[in-house]
Amino acid sequence: MDPSGAGTSNDEFKFKVVLLGEGAVGKSSLMLRYVQGQFNPRHISTIQASFLAKQLVVDGADIDLSIWDTAGQEKYHALGPIYYRGSHGALLVYDVTDAKSFDKVKMWVKELRRALGEDVVLFIVGNKVDLADSRTIETEMASQFAESVGATYEETSAKENIGVENLFELMCSAMVTRARAGPSNRGPSANGGRAGTTRRIRIVDEPSTGRKCC
Amino acid sequence: MSSDEAYANASVIYSNGPETFYSNIDVVNHSSSHVAVHNTSPRIVPYPRERPERPGETQSEYSEGVSRRPSIEENDDDLVEELRPTDQYGFYTEEVQTIPKKVNLDQLRRREKKWLHMMDNWAHFMDDEYDRVRDRCRKGIPPSLRARAWKLLSGASFQSEISMNRQVFDYCVRQPGDAKVIDEIERDLDRQFPQHELFARSGKYAEGGKEDLLNLLKAYTVLHPEEGYCQGQAPIASVLLMHMPIRDAFYVFVQICHKYLNGYYSPGLETVQLDGDILMQILKEKNKTCYSHFKRNGIDAPLFMIEWFMCLYCRTLPWPTVLRIWDMFLCEGIKVIFRVALVILQGTFGTNAQCKKYNDLSAILTRLRNLPSELVEEEALMKKAFTMVREIVITTEEEESKTNGVEKEHENGESIVEEPEEAIVTRMINGSKNAWNSIPSETKWFFYDFFLAMGALLILFGLTVAGRVVLEYTHQEEGPLCRFVHCIDGLLGTSLTESLCAVQLDIMERLVWHSKNLSNEIKDGIANFVDQISDGFSAFHTIIGSVLTYFAGLISDAFAELGGNVEENITFLKDFIASGLEWLSSNVSSFLSSFQEAAAPSN
């Protein structure tokens, strides 16, 4: 059950990344841009969280990346845990032209730290930087905030394909570093490869509470 | 004044055109009404029959300077959109419109007549011949009458025309609405059915379509400020607007939110999540293979059904199928949505071969987002929804409290094994509780583990049914001892069917947990087993040895007086089971008798 041998051959990792953020900030577009290289100005609103997978090699590691796109509207917040559970990384997306969407990012940071602990790699992403004219959130402010919560700040434009590839590579790189640094307390995830991340092992009876019937 | 004069007047008037006719006719009538009655030659009522006779024909001498030629230069994009071909439902299509699939016109006309008759006598049909209404909805409402039928089925006709609520729309739509909510709605206006000409970004209806959508959704939030707007509502409203004017659409929409999907869009989205749980429970009943496969791979209902249920499949299935589902849904309610979900799940993950092909979370979810076209084809899906899923039984409390939940149907005369056994079990449980409390906890654990291992062993030996009973009951809430009673019930063949797929993740979890206390060989055996088993059952026979070793180890460790030597051979384990059962029968007989005693008086 040791982490798969580093050094000799490529490590294999299976990572789950979740996209969170206010509605209409471009979460789905970022995912589609990255995985399929497309931008669709007529994308429908996301109601069903969905995911796409992509394989890539970063820092000498084979990564099997599954990206989860979620519904942004406040109402769907209740379903959040179902989707971000077991994530290794989260992209908290906001719209640089919309100050409200940045507030939402702050809220997500809190929630994820609470639910997933310090282990999760957080990226704060300012999307729609192509709309420079109507920009309301400045880089300075966002990156300071990111630093203060231990997250990384990146800017993208899914429409103009600015910084998207880079964003996901940085993310993977950070997750690889974290995974190699030490076995995560989520057991199987540090094991890379087929151990998978989405498979929950729930010990029916909790050993710590003593032997007691469920 | 003579009749001749009157006639002469009339002909003069006719030649002068209608305006003069209407201004003079009063005079003629006043002065000679009695004359006109006796007049033998009929007076000619003017109805200018000049060009343009048909809509669309122009009459250049009048329209010159009035009709405006669209400027291609300035609205290039719009024009391209406008010229794009659409299919019969108004969705843009890439290819030139092919001839739609052959419609049986006679049949369609027959149905239209039936529906017209039915709608003229709606109250009667709903009160006394509901089955007929239902069956006709299942066959599909003729497209020409769909809008009217939806209004009637949902009760929107009553609300919008007769009820005192008929003023509500006019009131609500005039209110400004909450700015925050409007903003949320506006974000979504461009994101509904962008391929439909009514909601495309530009094009001939685009602005009007979106404006209606905004007004409709806004009016609803004025009516229900506490609920606010939910993204799931926009697709529903859009589908309605494709069929009817805004006022009608509003009332149908309100009925859907009030009566059909009550609570789906309220904060917390609890109802839709609850329905997800219910769906999984029904799936467990109807298709264990699929259910187990989902459980093993960590698939919960919200990962795939939120959009299905919230949008009533309008984003999931081909359009003709969607309309058919809506026809039935507005008649029969939410159970239709459940049925369709079951048909889809059964069609995609109903067999072991399908499960093997899509064997992890990502493959499963991808499959569910790319449904096979033969499954979702209109007729095929409808047929399945009403034959395969004939009798659905709901058992949990939440389900019972749902007013229009899925009903039990015994139409095939097929009876379902249920109540009597249930009663016995309940009695047994009550009796066993007392007995159970008197047992030391170590022994309790013993039973638990022992039964688990027993169950797995039984399955390994091919006694799938019995093994599953054991496992299932071991996991029930009431405590191991009464589980034992259930097991006996099961062993005697009281219930259950189905397949080998029943070895569940839970078992593996427990194996892993137990492995902490075991020797290294056994641990390896388990690790091997867990790996292999998740790859599927093809490797089953190659691993049976190590599995059996594990179980033997587990049981002998725990139950020294039973186990004897642990040997890696099946003969031993067969003996082992035999001796285990023997032991059970001797040692547990005292417990058994105690709860038989306890149980007896209640019957």
UniProtKB/TrEMBL annotation, chain A:
The gene is WBGene00273947. It comes from the Eukaryota. Keywords: GTP-binding, Lipoprotein, Membrane, Nucleotide-binding, Prenylation, Protein transport, Transport. It is found in: Endomembrane system. CDD domains: Rab21. InterPro entries: P-loop_NTPase (IPR027417), Rab21 (IPR041833), Small_GTP-bd (IPR005225), Small_GTPase (IPR001806). Pfam families: Ras. It is a lipid-anchor. GO terms for cellular component: early endosome; endomembrane system. Its main location: membrane. Belongs to the small GTPase superfamily. Rab family. PANTHER family: PTHR47978. GO terms for molecular function: GTP binding; GTPase activity. This is Ras-related protein Rab-21. The keyword Lipoprotein applies. Gene3D superfamilies: P-loop containing nucleotide triphosphate hydrolases. GO terms for biological process: intracellular protein transport; Rab protein signal transduction.
TrEMBL record, chain B:
It holds the Pfam family RabGAP-TBC. One of its GO terms (biological process) is retrograde transport, endosome to Golgi. Gene3D superfamilies: putative rabgap domain of human tbc1 domain family member 14 like domains, Ypt/Rab-GAP domain of gyp1p, domain 1, Ypt/Rab-GAP domain of gyp1p, domain 3. It comes from the Eukaryota. One of its GO terms (molecular function) is GTPase activator activity. GO terms for cellular component: cytosol; plasma membrane. Keywords: GTPase activation. This is Tbc-10. It comes from Pristionchus pacificus.
